[in-house]
Amino acid sequence: MVLSIQVALAALLSVVLASKWWNYRSHMTKLAAIPTVGHSGLLSSYLSAYRFIKRGGAIVQEGCDKYRGGPFKIPLLDKWIVIISSTDMVEDFRKAGDHELSLQEAFRETFHADLVLGKQPAVDPYHVGVIQGALTRNMASKLGDLYDELAAAFNDEIPATNEWVETMAVEKVLRIVCRTTNRIFVGLPLCRNEEWKDIVIDYATRCFTASQSINLSPKFLQPFVGWYVNPRPASFKRANKHLRPIILDRLEKEKMHGLDKDAPQDMLTWLINSGNVDERQRRDPVNLVLSILTTNMGAIHTTSMAFTHALFNLALRPELIDILRQEIEPVIQEEGWTKSATGKLDKLDSFLKESQRVSASFSISVQRKPLKDFVFTNGIVVPAGTIIVASPRAIHFNESNYPNPSEFDAFRSYRLREAEGETKGKNMSYKHHMATPDSSYLTFGVGKHACPGRFFAVTELKLLMSHTLMYYDFKFSDGADGPKRNEFGGRLNLDETTKLMFRKRGDSN
Ligand code: HEM
Ligand SMILES: *[C@@H]1O[C@H](CO)[C@@H](O)[C@H](O)[C@H]1NC(C)=O
Ligand SMILES: *[C@@H]1O[C@H](CO)[C@@H](O)[C@H](O)[C@H]1NC(C)=O
Question: 450 in ligand 1 pocket by Cβ < 6 Å?
Answer without folding.
Answer: yes
